Amino acid sequence: MGHPATAAAAAADLPAHILIFPLPMQGHINSMLKLAELLCLSGLHVTMLLSDYTHRRLRRHADIESHFSRYSGFRVATISDGLPDDHPRAGERAMDIVMSLVKVGGSEFRRLIETTDALSDGGSRRRISCLIMDGVLSFAVPVAKEIGIPVIYFRTVGACSFWANYSFKEVIAAGEIPLKGKEEDKYSYASKPELDFPVTSVPGMEGYLRRRDLPAFCRVSDVNDAGFNTIITETRRTALSDGLILNTFEDLEGPILDQIRNQIPVVYSIGPLHCRLEKEATLPSSSFWEEDHGCMAWLDSQPDRSVLYVSFGSVTLLSKEELLEIWYGLVDSGQRFLWVMRPDSIVGGDGGSPSIPVELEKATKARGYMVGWVPQNKVLAHPSLGAFFTHSGWNSTLESIAAGIPMICWPYFADQMINSRFASEVWKVGLDIKDTCDRAIVEKTVRDVMEVRKDEFWERARQMAELAKKAVSEGGSSYLNLNRLIEFLKSSI
Ligand code: UDP
Q: Which of 376, 390, 413, 420 to mutate to test the pocket of ligand 1 (most atoms within 8 A of CB)?
């Protein structure tokens, strides 16, 4: 055993040690792993805290440990998310991960910090000097406060969604939520004219935000709904933190970021993180599913700007009826398409695999390519891409913007409702078909984006992509904000 004074002297030479704790879901891990790598590149020590379940998925399909082995300061630690392995963590059940962690996460986190002497690895690294955690995991804060370290929140959603969530109390007071009717058929929202009323109680969004564009947490009949209240409470707690990180950039969401800064003085807008990382390293895969690289050869054989990429992310579930409406719409549009259909994403009906009408099979063979999971950033960068039919998850939205690809937005839940409004009405890079699922609407929208208004959307998307690149280039707003964050983290020892 070394002499304590020698150990203390050795520890004094060690860099700050940052614990990054994402909500254990695909989209959250994708952006927080990129931040982890950027911090490693700046010489910091980083421990990534994953759930046992997600760690196993990543080991199986992404092998992050081998990618990160080039950084001696990188480690993974794990805790349980409190759910059994076979729990369905998709669709509405994804919220179970949040609720379970809210219940068991505090004691799990405390146990980890206490049994590992704050992750010091027996003195080869400092005890953690700062916690960067996902927005809904505030149970970790009391433990961090006890050991006297700063806490920074990383919300992996857009500023627009964060700010709407932050304003929920005011929106309730104004009588603009709840949006009743969660129990009903969700497409009944389409025919409710009251949902087109403007929302006036989210500062900075007057003029374009309608009730139907509010994050879907508001689609409850009762303002006391547990999930809805967790979002409100956790979001408000951000104001008590030492700062807020958002994977966005000033030229995209500047006016909303200014509103947030009225409540939370230290905001680091540092995105798009994948663009910054691409400049300094190769982008690692962090997929929970096996990536099919065969689709790249298919894309190579297609004409430029001719393929509609269809993907609804890692959580969305489709009923067989929805599947068929979208499929017919695509086929009837006559366009080529590459469709990511996750193995677990079709639900309902008789439980068997859906019988696919012959005309869909035939048209798909002729003009389509179906796949279980793809390297999305590579797909978006391919010259054959014409547009992205997306569920408007924040990562997908930002990746599409950075790649300069127009969007058709079909949001499913959560923040996606507001992201799609911003994509269509504020950034004007595509069209929003929320609250509908109808083959004729899909067909018309696909034609509009891929043919009729193609030039208009491509030009807007090109402008936004340039701004994204400028933000992460030397001297750009995100570049400087990340440097500012790194300086703060280095000084946290
Ligand atoms: N993604 C991917 N391959 C796919 C589909 C999605 O790598 O076939 C990635 C995508 O690039 C994004 C993430 O999965 O980074 C999905 O996150 P998003 O926030 O868009 O949606 P969520 O899955 O959280 O609903």
A: 376
